[in-house]
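can u pls check wat happens w/ S-adenosylmethionine
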Amino acid sequence: MDTTGDRARKTPARPNPLRSRKGMEAVSALLLRLGASAPEAVIERLVADPSAMEDVCRELAGGASIEKYRKLATTSNIMESGRVEADYAYVGLPDEAQGCDFDTGFRDHMAPRLGKRAESFAVMFDHLRRCERPLIVETGCLRVPDNWEGDGQSTFQFDWFAREHAGQVVTVDINPDSIDSSRRACSGVTSTILNDSVAALHMLGSLAARPAALIYLDSFDLDTSNPMPSAIHHATEMMAARGLIGPGTLICVDDFDVPPLGPGGKGLIVDQFMHGVRADVLFSGYQKVWRVAA
Ligand SMILES: C[S@@+](CC[C@H](N)C(=O)[O-])C[C@H]1O[C@@H](n2cnc3c(N)ncnc32)[C@H](O)[C@@H]1O
C-alpha cells in the first residue's frame, strides 16, 4: 500500500510568506535593521532590475548597521582566560625547538635562519643576560610568520628570551594584521599595543617604574630612495621613549647599514644623537646597537 502518496496529498501546501503583506513587512523591517534607509525603494529596485543585487549587497555591507552586527557576532561571549603559549610551528620552527632552552634554540634554530642579523641579535642577548627581569620594548612587531631572513622575527625571539629570564616584552604596531601575527606567535609574556609607536612610547615612558633593558626600533619601513621619513620617525620614537631610557639601556635600530645607502637608514638621526651623548657602540652593521652609559 502506498501511504507516501496519501500523506503528500493530505498535507496542505504551506503558503509562501513572501506573498503575504506580513511577509513583505518582515522583509522591509529586516532591510531597515541592516541599514537600508528606504527598504521599499530597495525592494522596488530589485524587482525592476534583479542584476542590482550585487550593488545592493555591497551598499548594505559598507554600512554601520552590518558592521555593528558583525562586531556583536565576533566579539560576544568571549570567555577565554589562562596561560598563552608561544607557537613555534607558526614561525616555522621544528617541533624539537620547543623543547630547547633559549641559548640552544638561538644557536641551533634561530641564528642559522637570521642571516645578516644573527651577529647583532647575539650581541643584544649577551648584554640582556646581565639584566634582571629585562623589560624589552619594541616598535614594529613580527608581521609575517617564518620571515626570519627578511624581517628577523624579533618579537618571537624577545618573547622566548623574556620567558626564560623573568622578563617582559611590550611591542607596538600600527597595523592590526602585524599585531595579529605577533599575538599568534608569542606567549603571554609579550603584550601588544595597537597604536602609533610615538604615542605608545610616550605613554609607556610615563607609566614605567624602571628603565627598559632594550628598546628595539623597527617600525616605519625604510624607502632606500627616500630614507628621511623613516629616519625622522625613528628619531621621534627616541624622543617619545625618553622615559624608558636609563643607565645601561640598550638601543637597537634595524635596517641601519642597508645597501646601496650605506650607514644611516632608519637610524640616520638616532645615530647622531647617540654619538652626541657618548653611548657605547656595541655593534654596527645591518643593525646598530648602542648602550647608554651606565
Ligand atoms: C619591518 S616590520 C617589523 C618587523 C619585525 N621587527 C620583525 O622582526 O619581524 C615594520 C612594522 O612597523 C609597523 N609600523 C609602521 N609604521 C608604524 C608606526 N608609525 N607606529 C607603529 N608601527 C608602525 C608596520 O605596521 C610593520 O608591521
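The longest helix spans residues 21-33.
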